[in-house]
Specification:
heterodimer; A: alpha/beta; Rossmann fold; 5 helices; B: alpha+beta; Mth169, Chain: A; three-stranded antiparallel beta sheet; 3 strands; elongated
């Protein structure tokens, strides 16, 4: 299968995502510059982390108007799997492909550390290989990951089981102390109604090999490979 | 014509930066200053023939780009 890694001016985790897809998973992967309008026949799209357009105005606010985002939106609306990591998640929020918005971290500090995440949903293309309740140890690196949504949106997200990842402690319990940024309900990642668009603040692509301190992030990429293989084998 | 757009966080949204500024002011002795909310201010030079049309353009770009309606609201002032 083929991954498209979208590159915005200021993306800085694009090569990490490419490396995970191409060299760790052994899948095909291409970079797609934000001014392009073709995804080069990719089966899955990754919006990588970084600081697109210098985070000017709001994180992701300007990137959402890049020409490639029309193509990504059409791909997502057609059911194609899209993963937004960190700044990629922020871009998905600004583009309206996922609900809610990001605020500055509650303590105003940039957090760069490993955190624990609990996998809440396994019926998305990026989590189907993970058991429910699995705890992943994955790094975060952000100043604006304090997820916010109005109470009615939040109720809908929870009721429709669209909180995919929650910050938790080492035993998998979502506690205030394990929440690094003040995100409401310890939310680290969510999906859309179609469940094919997933966004999360932590960086699974930086945790795909034991040499990096954790290989727990690999399951997201393995999952989408499995999801697409299963789809391809349908009559 | 010139349009001024003031973007502020909605009252329901916590403003950690405003809170920190308020704490700093209190430690400086300005105990009479209560809550502080931080916002953004934009000056737009708009090529439009009337104040109404200038306001309409400012509102359109505020809706589309300058403000995120999930967390922010805005107010517009137009000269003339």
């Amino acid at each position: 299968m083929k991954f498209a890694v979208v590159v915005f001016p200021g993306s800085n985790c694009d090569h990490d995502a490419y490396h995970a897809a191409r060299h760790v998973l052994g899948q095909d992967a291409v970079f797609v510059w934000h001014k392009e309008t073709s995804l080069q026949g990719a089966d899955a799209v990754i919006l990588p982390g970084g600081f697109s357009h210098g985070d000017y105005l709001r994180t992701g606010a300007i990137a959402r108007f890049s020409p490639v985002m029309n193509t990504v939106t059409a791909f997502a609306r057609g059911g194609g799997p899209v993963l937004g990591i960190c700044n990629g998640f922020q871009i998905l929020l600004e583009a309206g492909l996922l609900p809610g918005a990001m605020l500055r971290n509650k303590d105003l500090k940039f957090h760069c550390e490993h955190v624990h995440l609990r996998v809440e949903q396994t019926d998305t293309p990026f989590t189907l290989r993970a058991p429910v309740g699995q705890t992943l140890r994955i790094p975060i690196a952000h100043g604006e990951g304090n997820y916010f949504a109005e109470p009615d949106v939040l109720r809908d997200l929870e009721a429709s089981r669209r909180v995919v990842f929650r910050y938790c402690d080492t035993s998998g319990i979502a506690t205030p102390g394990s929440n690094p940024n003040g995100a409401v309900n310890n939310i680290a990642g969510i999906c859309n109604e179609g469940r094919n668009v997933v966004g999360l603040m932590p960086h699974p692509e930086r945790a795909c090999e034991p040499a990096l301190g954790s290989a727990d992030g690999l399951v997201l990429f393995e999952s989408v490979v499995s999801a697409l293989a299963a789809q391809a084998s349908l009559p | 014509m010139k349009a001024r757009v003031f973007v502020t966080l909605k009252p329901s949204v916590l403003d950690p930066q405003g809170r920190t500024i308020a704490d700093a002011l209190h430690s400086m002795g300005y105990t009479g200053v209560g809550d502080v909310r931080q916002g953004k201010y934009f000056e737009l030079d708009v090529d439009a023939p009337s104040a109404d049309q200038t306001r309409a353009v400012a509102a359109e770009v505020a809706d589309k780009l300058l403000a995120n309606p999930v967390i922010e609201s805005y107010r517009i002032e137009v000269d003339g």
